[in-house]
Design a protein that fits this description.
The chain has 120 residues and is an all-alpha fold. It is 70% helix and 0% strand. Helix 2 packs antiparallel against helix 4. The chain is flat and about 70 Å long.
Length: 120
């Protein structure tokens, strides 16, 4: 049996230059870390969902039963809906910035909004 160094594989740098999407590499690093943590949370959420479903069905909760679990259509749909809402929450600020680019009326400063409210 061959031993695989999972840490080395996870931390290995891909060949070639890393693509950057933002002007500031620090922003890129923070986004990368955030998305890695978000992915781990999603995996934990799925495992917790599996544990809950196994318990509800009366199945013994073991590592083997968790690893072997296959969600039915309803569970898969519920998980997909959770994932979509989760990603939307994580990327909310990016979505809002895209909306502001498309609709200039959304780019009003909070001070101007407060002043307009006070004038009414």
């Amino acid at each position: 049996m061959t031993n695989i160094d999972v840490n080395a594989l996870a931390n290995a740098k891909a060949k070639g230059e890393r693509p950057y999407f933002f002007d500031d590499p620090a922003v890129e690093r923070v986004l990368s870390i955030t998305m890695a943590v978000a992915a781990e949370v999603a995996v934990l959420r799925e495992r917790m969902d599996t544990i809950e479903r196994l318990m509800e069905s009366g199945t013994a909760v073991t590592k083997a039963s968790i690893d072997a679990y296959k969600p039915d259509d309803n569970a898969a749909r519920e998980r997909q809906e959770w994932h979509a809402a989760y990603v939307a929450r994580i990327l909310r600020i990016i979505h809002q910035e895209l909306q502001a680019l498309e609709d200039e009326s959304l780019n009003v400063s909070s001070k101007k909004l407060a002043d307009a409210q006070a004038d009414q």
